[in-house]
Amino acid sequence: MFVADVGRTWLNHPWKTKSRLLTERSEIDELIQFGIEEVYIDTAKSVKKPRLEPRPKPSLADPKNAINKAPTVVHKSVEPIVSMESEFPKAAKAYGRALDTSKALVAACRMNKRIEVSEVQENVDELVESVSRNRDALTALIKLRHFDDYTYTHSLNVSVLSISAGKTLGLTDAELKILGLGTMFHDLGKIRIPDNILNKPGKLTDDEFAIMRNHAALSAEILTEQHLNVSDQVIKVARFHHERIDGSGYPDHLQGEQIPPLATICGLSDVYDALTSDRVYHKGMLPHDALKFIYSLRGTHFQPDWVDRFVQSVGIYPPGSVVELNTGHLAVVMEVINRSLLTPLIKVVSDPNGQLYSRTKLVDLSKPAENQGWTINRVVPPSEAGFDPASFYNFAAE
Ligand SMILES: [Fe+2]
Ligand SMILES: [Fe+2]
To answer: Which end of the chain has less neighbouring CB within 10 Å, N or C?
Structure first.
């Protein structure tokens, strides 16, 4: 059989590639020994012969029998445990608290004060818990709260995107917490970069760029200098988030698998947030344009597998996006989790003439009984929508 994906143990992978044609029973045993209880099989790529040795009669109580069950999935994800309605207000509070912490963190570093790691860790834990309950609530928030200051939101957004991607990739909570902390700290070194370079509106000169590139090493330096009680992996996320597999990154020009996995997730989220955020001098890209750009870095800057999984995690229509339907109606994307990337749960908010409805309707695009033949035509830039999509997350009012 052709194993397309071994799923959750991606970081501790038994193979060099994520997929492989299995011809021996012993190869399955190798997976089981690795703690892998479930794989995704591409039946189209599987071959009839050579056959695997006959397997013993399956016992339903034995999780390893799951190895034969699942077809290839489009969007492998985590079940939302609670509804968006119930999670959104909690996520909003956690986001607000983490944003305050992000501000305090930058202020402390500017004044050379000690970082309160336990406070940041507490916020990160809340983010991890929220993502575990319903991943879409926090990802909607980073889209909806686009008005906050980039200096403080960027690290937090990278943290949310990374935790969310990490969750999709099957990281454990402990790994997610390390990733969350590392990403919150990833750009701290920027406070030691002169303002005229950091905020220069035009293109940086080669010399300025060389100074700017120091920020990743400086982030790690700040964490080391303070002798913080954090895992070495946290410091590596900060130091290596600009490393790229072809060696073109910085500060250490690491290559390929030398780059720690968590730093790669931070790197992908970092590029995505930088491209999609509105800055003083340019409007942010739409999510699918940013993903297209990231896709172009596949194989040069980032491992192809990682890019694919990141794209799957973010989705083409992230929650909080405004979309135009094939009929011209406008809708806000509410939930994408566990759905095909093309058929999210949406709230239809205006008629084809742009007239907002006083009563909006939730529509599951994947259900023919609900979708009235609707499909998504395109993503509408927030400036063009004429309304604030956040107002349709009205259960946020608390
Ligand atoms: Fe950076
Ligand atoms: Fe960054």
So the answer is: C
CATH code of the domain occupying 84-314: 1.10.3210.10
Please give the model's pTM, rounded to 2 decimal places. Answer: 0.79
Cα of 166 vs centre of ligand 1, distance in Å, is 19
CA of 186 to the centre of ligand 2 (A): 6
Q: Which of 160, 124, 117 is nearest to 265 (CA)?
A: 160
CA of 150 to the centre of ligand 1 (A): 13
Alpha helices in the chain (DSSP H): 25-33, 84-110, 117-133, 135-144, 150-168, 173-185, 195-198, 206-212, 215-225, 232-240, 261-276, 287-296, 304-314, 368-371, 382-385
The alpha carbon of 294 and the centre of ligand 2 are apart by a number of angstroms equal to: 15
Question: How far apart are the C-alpha atoms of 13 and 357, rounded to whole Å?
Answer: 50
The ligand with the least distance to the CA atom of 242 is 1
pLDDT tens, per residue, the chain with 398 residues: 777 776 644 445 556 566 778 877 777 777 766 656 667 677 667 765 444 443 443 333 333 333 333 223 333 444 567 888 899 999 999 999 999 999 999 999 999 899 999 999 999 999 999 999 999 999 999 888 777 788 889 999 999 999 999 998 889 999 999 999 999 999 999 999 999 998 888 889 999 999 999 999 999 999 999 888 899 999 999 999 999 999 999 999 999 999 999 999 999 999 999 999 888 777 889 888 999 999 999 999 999 988 988 988 888 899 999 999 999 999 999 988 777 778 899 999 999 998 999 888 899 998 988 888 999 999 998 788 888 888 888 764 44
Centre of ligand 2 to C-alpha 251, Å, is 14
350 CA → ligand 2 middle, Å: 36
Kindly give the distance from the C-alpha atom of residue 53 to the centroid of ligand 2, in angstroms, as a whole number: 50
273 Cα: distance to centroid of ligand 2 (angstroms): 8
Q: How far is the CA of 216 from the centre of ligand 2 (A)?
A: 9
- Map out the domains of the chain as residue ranges: 2-68, 84-314, 322-396
Ligand 2 being an ion, which residues bring their Cβ within 5 A of it? Answer: 187, 270
257 is written with which tokens? 């698998």
